[in-house]
Structure formats: structure tokens, C-alpha cells
Amino acid sequence: MPRYYKIHDSKETIYVTIDDSGAVIIKDVAGRKVFLSKYQAKLMKFGIENLISDLFKDTDSSDVVVEEMKSEKG
Predict the structure, then answer these.
(1) pTM of the model
(2) Which of 15, 28, 30, 58 is the most buried (most CB within 10 A)?
């Protein structure tokens, strides 16, 4: 069963779908989509945490909200 998430802060919203295989679909409010296989998503997580994490050190993420949704929206 796929899982659906809405991730947003005061400026931006994205929708994330994770299917049964572990693949990830990321969609913004304009409808642009990024499809990642389970392996690509794993690499992306590694890249964000290890390679570009310095870009986010001074960013205040206290207003970021992750909501699990029952169905795909957006």
C-alpha cells in the first residue's frame, strides 16, 4: 500500500508518494514530478545528508511540517 506525505513550511509545499517497492515520487504544487527508484532514493538520502548538508546548517527548519495523508492529493 503506497504511503502519501505532504511536507510544507510557510513558503513551499511538496507531496511525496512512497510505493510498495520503495520508489519515491516527489511532486510540487506546480505539478512538476521527480521519480526515484528505491536505489536512487537511497543515493539521494546519502547525498543530502553527506554532501550538501553544509548548505542547510544555517537554515531554520522549525516550521517544516510532515503530514501523512490517506490518499494522493495535489
Answers:
(1) 0.76
(2) 15
Q: Which amino acid is at 66?
A: V
Helix/strand/coil for 20: coil
Best CA proximity match to 36, nearest among 52, 49, 22: 22
Half-sphere exposure of 56 (CA within 13 A, CB side): 9
Output the pLDDT for position 23.
93
| Integer-rounded Cα radius of gyration of the chain | 13
Q: What are the DSSP calls for 23-61, one per residue?
A: -EEEEETT--EEEE-HHHHHHHHHHHHHTSGGGGTT---
